[in-house]
Amino acid sequence: MPLIKLNATQGLTGTLPAVSGANLTNIDGGKIGQVLSVTKTDTTSVTQSGTYADITGMAVGITPSATSSKILCLVSCYPSTQSGYNLMLRLLRGSTNLCIGDASSSRNQASGHLHPNSAYDIIPTTINFLDSPSTTSATTYKLQWRQVDNETAYLNRTFHDDDNIHRPRLASTITVMEILS
Question: Is 22 strand, coil or helix?
């Protein structure tokens, strides 16, 4: 490899070595094996329920290539509900709850919570979780919600969905990345 010299009056001289992914060797972990994503552009709703319900269109499947792989799950969603009402969100792998708080009496175990100040609020919500599914079987990551008060909640729109330029329509996503180890 030629020597590279820096000369204040002449600038850089010589040549730099070519850099490519082929030059990256002996790196065993942290590579991304695959990336899959789903985007929900339409709206949907849920009314008060005693249990969590799947959000239609907010699920993505992935088949890990090794049992040692981790799955980085990135959720970005835009729920809304009436002012002062509570909406809970939950991330799952299949039927297994992920990224939820500890159980404590009658408190709701959730991955996210929404309690807006206004019926015109949309609360941008993100959930990021690094999962270790320990499988090479097809696995589905999904988002559920539960409206705990006597009201309806919505996704990708405001509660009051007046037809004017101040009421947006948004898109929610779930992205999963296989992290090889």
Answer: helix
Q: List the chain domain ranges.
A: 29-179
One DSSP character per residue, 121-161 reads ----EEEEEEE-----S-EEEEEEEEE-SSSEEEESS-SS-
User: Minimal CA–CA distance to 141: which of 155, 127, 154?
Assistant: 127
**75 DSSP assignment:** E
Residue-wise pLDDT for 11-60, tens only, equals 555 665 555 545 555 556 679 999 999 999 999 999 987 789 999 999 99
Burial of 102 per CB tally in 10 Å (0-12, 13-18, 19+): exposed
Contact 51, 144 (CB under 8 A): no
pTM for the model: 0.81
CATH number of the 29-179 domain: 2.60.120.1340
Q: Which residue shows structure tokens 């991330």?
A: 91
Distance CA 13, CA 63 (A): 49
The C-alpha atoms of residue 158 and residue 169 are separated, in whole angstroms, by 8
Q: Tokens 């206004």 identify what position?
A: 118
